[in-house]
Structures are given as C-alpha cells and as structure tokens.
Request: fold
Amino acid sequence: MGQRRIVTGSALALTATLLLAACSGGSDSAGSSEDIDTAPKGDGQTLTIWTYESADSAMGIAWDKAMEKFTAETGAKVDFQLKSFEQINQSASQVLNSDSAPDVMEYNKGNATSGLLSSQGLLTDIGPAVEAYGWGDKLSSTLQTTAKYSDAGVMGTGNWYGIPNYGEYVQVYYNKDLFEKYDLEVPTTLDEFTTVLQKFKDEGITPLSESASEYPLGQLIYQLALLNADRQWVTDYQTYTAPADFHDANWTAAATTVKEWVDKGYISKNATGIKAQDAGDAFTAGTNPIFFSGSWWHGTFEKDAKFDWGTFLFPGATMSPGSSGNLWVVPEKSDAKDLAYKFIDITMSPEIQNLLGNNGGVPVAAEDDAITDEKSKELITNFNKLSEQDGLAFYPDWPAPSFYADLNSSLQELVNGTKTVDQVLDQMQADYDKGTEEYK
Reply:
C-alpha cells in the first residue's frame, strides 16, 4: 500500500527533433491565461498529490522540497499519497472518474496513458496555465511532444494536458568493481557486449538483472529492435503512420537475441516472476553486474549501492528508449486547480530543478553551473548525447492502452519457452493491431 503523510507549514534544453505525425488536432483551449490565479491563497485548503517516485530518488527528493515550498508560499496543506506505478497505471481511468481523484498527479506520458485519459475527458486542458506561467518557454519541442494530445489522444499535437519537468532515458548500469575484477572494458558494440555477457557467465555469474513481469525486459527487446531502426520506423510504430510489422528484421532480430540470451544463461528464466524493483535490488546487491533500465534508478543506486558503478548508452545504438519524464497532470475533477498549477510551477523553479539535477535526475530548467555532482553530470552528458543524435525513441508500450500488459505476457512466454520466437512475434502483432485499431 502507498504511504501517506500530511505536510504543513506557513536548462537543461533538449535539442532532438522528433518527427511525429499530426493526427486530428485538439479543440481550442478552455478559458484564457487571464483566468489563472498565479498567486493563489490556500489557507484552509488541502492539495492532494499522487506520485510514484521513491523517497530517495532524485524526483522524490525534489518533489518533497517542492511540497514544503508550496505550503510555505500558499498556506495550503498537502495530502501526499505515494502510489506504485502499477497502482496508478491500472486504476487511473476509474479513480479519475470518481470523487476520489487527486488534484495533481504524476502520470505516465504517451498515447496509451495520458493520451487515453485526455481523450476520455478526465484530464484538464492546462493550456491557459501554460501561457500564464510561461512553461512553454522552458520546454523544448521534444518535451512538448509528450505534453500535447489530439482529440483522439495521439501525442504531438492538440492541447496541453501535462507538464514534464525532467527528462529520462534507458541506459546500461554496470558494476565497475566486477568489470575490473574480470578485466572487462566498457563495450562499444553489440558483439563486445555479448562477449562481456559470456565472460560473466563463464565465471558462474548471471550477467543481466532482468524482469519479465514488468517493464525492464520490454525495454530491452525494444532497444535491440532499435539497433538498426531509423526515425521513420519509430514514428510509424508510435503514431501509426504506416503499419508496424513485428516480423520485420528489427523485431525478429530482437526477439531472437532475447531468446538466445535466455538459452545461454545471460538472462535467468526466473525473470518471468521478477518485478522491476526486484531486478533493481539485485543489481544494488551486486548479484548481477549489469542492469539495463531507466535514469530514474540513478539516485537509488547512488544512495544504496556499496560498490563502484557507472553507466553507458547501449553499445552500438544511436536510439534508445527515452523521452520527457512523466507528466504532472491535473484531473478534470480537481477542485483546487489554481493551487495545482502553482505546485507545478514550483517544480519548474531553478531551486527545485537544480536539486533534481544534483540528486541524479535530468532536469529541464536547471542552471548549468549549479550541477556539481559528478555522477549526475555523467547522467546528463549521456542524455545530451542521445538527444543530440535524435535518439529518444519513446517506449515500446506507448502505442496502445493494453500493450504494456500484453508485451509483458508475450515476453514471459518467450523466456519460459512456452512459445517460439515466431509465435511470440505473432502474439505481439495481434495485440498491437487490436490495441491501436481505434487510432487508425
């Protein structure tokens, strides 16, 4: 269950150009910037906030400080409710359509999540607040892609339904101590990476910490599919500009590689029952020397890992899973919208953005000379490199609301061997086609 508490009390610029297809445009924004109170008084009021960032993550640290600052500036109390990603992902539509909806919520970006809720009328069009606070001036076109949705819920065009205030991407975390022990270098190609995996296996170590019951393995297979893909392939997959073919060379090679890595022992068959948190914990404990997952783990590893560790972009890749961070969204049923907008604005302030960057996050509006933590600089440098080569490829589950669970289910069958590579690709194709049918 999520923890609960009451708080009381009186640029980094992204430069990637993402070629997203323009589907149906959204309607005009409701109201105007003049309707937004940018100095709301919250005496006697409570703002309910839902997030799913761990308290020791960069975002958790930054949002905690933002809540303190919010209370001091507005006089309002904060009812902060920590949820799990799965809790919010599975129940958002139902909760936001009830009187239990929070006033502001962290929510996943993309067609299948924020896009779906916006098309259902469950999220507030925050365009007037964007104009009143000037948030658009702080967000590059890349970041704005995941903040705007058409009437059909397709990202990239239409009205503003959320604000991202950090970036994120998927990279390789590695145990430097174990790499040094076995005289291994950071690989720069897929072949070199495979050699590293085999070396660890020869030493009796399962190299990859993996989860097939949640997102990590889905991100890995997508990364493998991206190795020889181009931007148009990503655009077609994410925005339906051309049919996605799961038996093309990219997906076939990716699924075949995952199957080979399971058979060779680079990925444990137990991954079918392992959750993302468990996979991250196994890396933190030093059980597995390599973990391919998101930048959101950075702060946790910096705090908890008792060994020297580092990061690198996936070898041989010019594109990787990544995008803006999750969005702050304001449910349509919120009765404290001006306070919600004020809280969002505080998370965009230099103080909070700098704090985010120095604790392992990727801020969108930090002051460049304010980032002093060396590992944070490495994290941001890798992200900048990926961004500069137009390498943010979003995430594999985004195209359809049900595809996250469908993809995990297919990959579990691939790992445990109950379906062949072709059968798994057939299932992925069927699930994708069914899930995206309404958008085409």
User: Anything to note?
Assistant: Confidence is low (pLDDT under 50) at residues 1-29. The CA atoms of residues 10 and 72 lie 5 Å apart. The chain has two domains: 4-165+325-366, 168-321+396-439.
